[in-house]
Amino acid sequence: MTLSVGVIGLGVMGAEHLRLLREETAGVHVAAICDADAERAGRLAQDAEVFSDPLALIASDRVEAVVIASPDATHAGLAEACVAQRKFALCEKPLAGTAVEALQVVDAEVTLGRRLIQVGYMRRFDPAYVEMKRAKDAGEIGAPVLLHNQHRNAAAPGWFTGPMAVTNSFVHEIDISRWLLGSELVSAVVHAAPGGDPLMITMETERGEIVSTEVFMNAHYGYHVHAEIVGRSGTVQMSQPAVTLTNSALHHGHGYPENWVPRFRDAYRVQMNAWVRSVATGEPVGASAWDGYVATAIAEQVVTALQTEGKAKLFLGARPEIYA
Ligand code: ISE
Asked: Which residues does the UniProt record annotate as the domain Gfo/Idh/MocA-like oxidoreductase C-terminal (predicted)?
């Protein structure tokens, strides 16, 4: 059986998802694409039907499942439209621009009584994070006490506005920290360097683990994400996932990618294949709409903290049964 997929949004991530679907994913065919830029959509169409209206793509009989990779603020509405059409969707992170909108997606699934939305928190499929979680879960480092995250971009993407360092970048750290530790975040303290970049955010989990995160949007030297879990009897950290070591011009070392696409290429590929299989089996994988809501809700509360007294007691509400 071949799954017919529609892709909405063909920017950096949408184009990469389209490439992955066509070149590196089994059991799938791209039946439709949609982008605000008609010329770009035409260039990438091949045999896919080109839509100018994302809601028409979602409603099309030719589309069985949808990849949503349009701008952040449009995610929730499109995810809700997929639920209304009873179609599975892989929705790029963040799930929504606001916690209220994210909860509307959760509510739509709860009303339907099933999960159709997977949020593209792809780090859950990254080999380095997967191995760190395995080592921690196997007890190889003892009980975790600290998690150190570093999230550095060479330069903030051109489309960044307002507090997107938190709502678009730091959301990854919220999701991966909950996933790695298997516990919920209950409080946060935020510091901003002069000029607002980098941010240093310290959170505490319900079990008292401390999660420290640096978010540096203009680190200049390259794209660099790193994590280390400190346990009572050892630590586990990712080594740079570089496959070569270069000796040249008096230097010895690994390079850094310019952005997240090369760094997380394996994660995106594994995520896409897992999503397509999950649509076929009906067994959800990856981050749920609830996980998407949690990341957006915490990000929103951290933004408020940043603009006020720098601290937040995090509030989420009760997790509905379908996400147990
Ligand atoms: C981007 O959207 C991502 O998802 C990257 O992983 C992150 O590092 C970057 O800051 C975001 O803008």
From this structure: 138-313
Encoded tokens for 148: 């150190």
Q: For the chain, list the strands marked E by DSSP.
A: 3-8, 28-34, 49-51, 65-68, 88-91, 117-119, 144-152, 185-192, 199-205, 210-216, 224-231, 235-237, 246-248, 251-253, 287-288, 311-313
Most informative mutation of 173, 260, 266, 268 for ligand 1 (most atoms within 8 A of CB):
260
Query: Do residues 41 and 34 lie in contact, with contact meaning Cβ atoms separated by under 8 Å?
Result: yes
- Which residue, judged by its Cα, is nearest atom 12 of ligand 1? 169
pLDDT, tens digit, for every residue of 193-247?
A: 999 999 999 999 999 999 999 999 999 999 999 999 999 999 999 997 788 999 9
Q: In 10 A of CB 213, how many CB atoms?
A: 26
Average model confidence (pLDDT) for the chain?
A: 97
Percent of the chain beyond pLDDT 90?
97
Cα–ligand 1 centroid distance for 176 (angstroms): 13
Residue 117 β-bridge partners: 89
Rounded CA-CA distance 149/238 in Å is 11
Most informative mutation of 152, 168, 268 for ligand 1 (most atoms within 8 A of CB):
168
Residue 193 CB neighbour total at 10 angstroms = 11
Q: How far is the CA of 312 from the centre of ligand 1 (A)?
A: 24
Indicate the top mutation candidate among 12, 92, 122, 172 to test ligand 1's pocket, ranked by most ligand atoms within 8 A of CB: 172
Confidence of residue 162 (pLDDT cuts 50, 70, 90): confident
**ipTM of this predicted complex?**
0.97
pTM, full prediction: 0.97
The domains located in the chain, with CATH, are: 3-123+267-287 (3.40.50.720), 124-260+297-313 (3.30.360.10)
